[in-house]
Amino acid sequence: MEPCSLGPVNHDRMISFDSVTKAFPHNGSGTTTVLRNLSFDVRQGDFTCILGPSGCGKSTLLNLVAGFLKPDTGSITIDRKPVQGPGPDRAMVFQDPTLFPWLTVLQNIMFGLRRKGLDKAECRRQAMHYLEFTGLGHAAAQYPYALSGGMRQRAAIARVLALHPMVLLMDEPFSALDANTREHLQEELQNIHSAGKETFMYVTHSVSEAAYLADRIIILGDRGTVAHDIEVTIKRPRKRSSTELLELKTLLRSHLAHLPCCMTHTTRKPAQP
Ligand SMILES: Nc1ncnc2c1ncn2[C@@H]1O[C@H](COP(=O)(O)OP(=O)(O)O)[C@@H](O)[C@H]1O
Ligand SMILES: [Mg+2]
């Protein structure tokens, strides 16, 4: 069996980018176009990895879906509704887990649930469920400072899962962790994805991570356009040492190596006469 197939995918539209362009001011003298005329759709329930080198616009893309940024032109829709700001249908996990240091792990998970209007006992029950689910039941009463980096990241994942978002956005969530913890959390994430209905958009610069986790890999190219759109059909659970995975990683490395090195485009304002 081929490890992956290139070409068009079934465009079921859970997340939809339609001709999205985003530029940022550059040194006060022009703009840097990070994403240009970007169009693609993400299917409901898929695990889509956005892969690309540093600075190619991956975080910008995710921040647009989260509603933290607005596109200059074009539109983004979630389940056919335009993104007009952050909303409860989406949740984000960052590279540095953002837990409240003055709350215990359990209270951190309960915080978002309380804001949804659930009573305290129900919040506690649901929070404990997700802590057990992510292997943190034993750490419920601990404060974030007492946890390892991997445990803090698990707590951050438990917190977003408890909120039942339709879309989970993850921006290089494991890149600051040691290799063993990272692989362990990738396995857990694969299980979480298989067990649920959430749609994942996962940003990474690691070909190993993308090959292991993704149903689909979008490689961002020049100025944030889609350079490659790869459907991954390797069956789960995946084995890191399988020939299919190794072949896919080789393909991804080759695609990345052939991207133009200048990823963004800067326009300078003409000098004042
Ligand atoms: N708020 C901002 N203001 C100005 N430039 C920005 C801002 N956010 C990102 N950029 C620039 O946009 C480009 C892409 O950034 P980013 O999306 O963070 O890339 P990636 O996540 O792929 O490393 C970089 O050149 C970065 O400096
Ligand atoms: Mg980034």
Task: Explain the overall architecture.
- The chain is built from seven helices and twelve strands.
- The chain has helices at residues 58-66, 105-115, 120-133, 149-162, 179-195, 207-213, 243-257; strands at residues 4-6, 15-25, 30-42, 47-51, 73-78, 81-82, 90-93, 167-171, 199-204, 216-220, 226-232, 265-268.
- The chain has a seven-stranded mixed β-sheet with strand order 1-11-10-4-9-8-7, sandwiched between helices. Strands 6-5-2-3-12 form a five-stranded antiparallel β-sheet, with helices on one face.
- It is globular.
- The model is unreliable at 1-11 (pLDDT under 50).
- Bound molecules: adenosine-5'-diphosphate and magnesium ion.
